[in-house]
Fold each of these.
Amino acid sequence: MKNYFWVLLLLVSCQSDPQPKPQSSTMTTASLSNAVTSGAGLETATLGAGCFWCIEAIYQRLDGVESVVSGYAGGTVENPTYEQVCNGNTGHAEVAQIVFDPKKISFREILEVFFQTHDPTTLNRQGNDVGTQYRSAIFYHNDEQQKIAEEMKKTAQQWWDNPIVTEIAPLKKFYKAEAYHQNYFNNNPTQGYCVFVVNPKVQKFKKQFKEKLKKEAAAEQ
């Protein structure tokens, strides 16, 4: 996933990546864990936005989100491994499966964050992560999600100068990624990719969506 020889370059590229047009205390790891995976009244979104370490860390901090699980979707190979997905031959994208409480946050709001916390205008890449596994994608779970995704893609185009290339497709199968990928940023905050890539994205999200943060995330240093 991460070619560490260009990690210093990433520090510069993160600051210069295309950005959407502007719109009008220490947290414990346990408080951001993925303990809840299902429940009555909860809904699920499955999104690809480049490296799943990034999208997982962002949505773990969004109020109304109950759990986030990193995994793979959109391909043809059953039970893919991380190494297979990285080779780019499985058709799978790295995704996060997000369980959320629709009484606290809507699917539309989930996508509002999605379209403003990654670059949906670059085909099969995010920054220096290149390959079909890093494509921008919304894998909808039902007809209503498909309708909202299509609407939000049109709305989000107003925020970006270049055409949005986000794939919108039905979710056929979600495969949970290996255990070491789960809760990755919270467990490995000093790892190189987390320092130079994930953390800047998280900080940008926290600044842009501060009114939508969990209390623990708002207090996070």
Amino acid sequence: MIQKRMIKRFAAAALAAGLCLGVAACGSKAESSSVSGSGAAASSSVTEAAAPADVTGAAASSSAADAAELADGTYDADFTTDSKMFHVNEAMDGKGKLTVRDGVMTIHISLASENIVNLFEGTAEDAQKEGAKLLEPTTDTVKYDDGTTEEVYGFDVPVPALDQEFDLALVGTKGKWYSHKVRVSNPTPAEDQAAG
């Protein structure tokens, strides 16, 4: 099991090195947040994030309808992307912590490393405009099935609507922005909320 984990980490490191050369790069630390998870049973400390400033029209009404269906609280939810290079950490089993508070949805995701230094809800082009509000990373500690832990970056991402793709751009330390499509779906009450 440990040898398998070491092989996976070596492959991930080699992949990250290639990513640093051609796509994105390693970053610096900002806020701190603790996240532990083993497989599907992952927990996180989620900080409150502002609602997206540019959500209007159908997306805003969809978000309000989605949030109205979900009571205020914390949920485990699937976070999927259009890229194999941009995804939640394997310890999180493809999930993030969705928080619904006063009709506003935010998902906390723990990424695979510290290579992505900022996110932006929108396109890469819009992220580079003056006044763009970037999402800052937290430092999360993830726990793998074999008991090892690792510090990675996490982000609190505003969710305009469930089960619908939305734009999320990312940047590494080399300063190149990339546009991605992401989706948040299948919210289920978080273990701590379901037990209470």
Amino acid sequence: MIARLRERWAAHPDQRLGLALLPLGLFLGHMCANRSVKATASRQLLMSAERAWLSVTDVRNHARWIPLTHMEAEANLGVGDTFTGVSGPPFPPGLRLVDRMRIERLDPPTTTAEGRAVYRKLGPVLLGTAEVRVRPIGDTACTVTWVEHVHLRGLPPGLTAPILSPLLAQMTKLALRRMVAELTM
């Protein structure tokens, strides 16, 4: 197994972060083998649901809200379009996390109904979905909810929960806090 991991490390530099976390995931995995990996954060904004929706579903904005991340995405993406987020420090090389996604759903909010965007994570390291919901509260306020349901490729979702859940929970909370600060200035 060690030789196989070394081969993958050398052959797939974009998967190194997942491979580095593998031993910790295997060690902690027995604690929650049946638990799903899910992180959720919500924030209320004093702005229309339409304005919040336009900001949060333009994935290029996520680079300002998620630390050490840049987005490779076109403007005005639609259902079926793909984009890539790359996260991690610039050094050491190879420890950056490439997160390829496809938009599966883009249903904007109405005056009475919640909007929902669903992004399918395609790998190479992370699989699962990210979801953004925008629920109107009258004409001048809304609640934005960010849900990450993610696991590492090649491992059962419950096995990676001890590692990913706390990290994703903090990431979603920070991203929403930064989004609120930026949009309500």
